[in-house]
Amino acid sequence: MSAPNLPAVPDTSKAAASLFIEMLIKGYSACDEFDVYEEELETFLERLADRAGADLANEFYFTLHREFNEVSVALTPKAYFDKHGYMYDQHIFWMEKVLPDNFDEVMEATWVAIGATDLKDVYKQLIARGFEWSEQAQALIDRNSTTPLMGEINTFHTGPSNGGNHQPKKPSGPKL
């Protein structure tokens, strides 16, 4: 049973996935908007994730990372990245419902693929579950990484080359 002020859980998995993303991006400000406690919002998000099932993965971009001979993955809601051009930086506790069993959350929106050392294998696992690799998000991560992986990923990436709809904003203000 949801808190009375929250929307009803949609009947379809796609609609539940869409509402999950909307509420996730609002974050705890949704508590004020719907006049609910954090625990009620978290329970609602869990119910949405349950209803969304595998369709939840379709709402996320992923990027790949390699550190200490392990492969890790960062997830970001497509709607968030496409609007802001940045990775989502909060915990997404409910993703264990759609991630492979060997994935363990190590920090906000980031999971390590336990025992996995091959980028291509992890990439294939995520694609098979409905996640989409984003070239633009990967480029953002690679700019700040000591081990950029775009070149290696492009040797096996089979999807569209854009991997995201975000168009970087042109800098404004005086030239320095």
Description:
- The chain has helices at residues 13-26, 29-34, 38-52, 78-84, 119-128, 135-143, 150-154; strands at 60-67, 70-77, 103-107, 110-113, 132-133.
- The protein contains seven helices and five strands, in the order H-H-H-E-E-H-E-E-H-E-H-H.
- With 176 residues, the protein is an alpha+beta fold.
- Mean pLDDT is 89; it is low at 166-176.
- A five-stranded mixed sheet has the order 3-4-2-1-5, with helices on both faces.
- It has two domains: 13-56, no CATH class; 59-154.
- Helix 1 packs antiparallel against helix 3.
- It is elongated.
Number of helices: 7
Are there runs of 5+ residues with pLDDT below 50, and where? Answer: 166-176
Q: What's the Cα radius of gyration?
A: 17 Å
Task: Report the span from N to C terminus.
Answer: 56 Å
Quaternary structure of the protein? single chain
The residue-averaged pLDDT reads: 89
Strand order of the largest sheet: 3-4-2-1-5
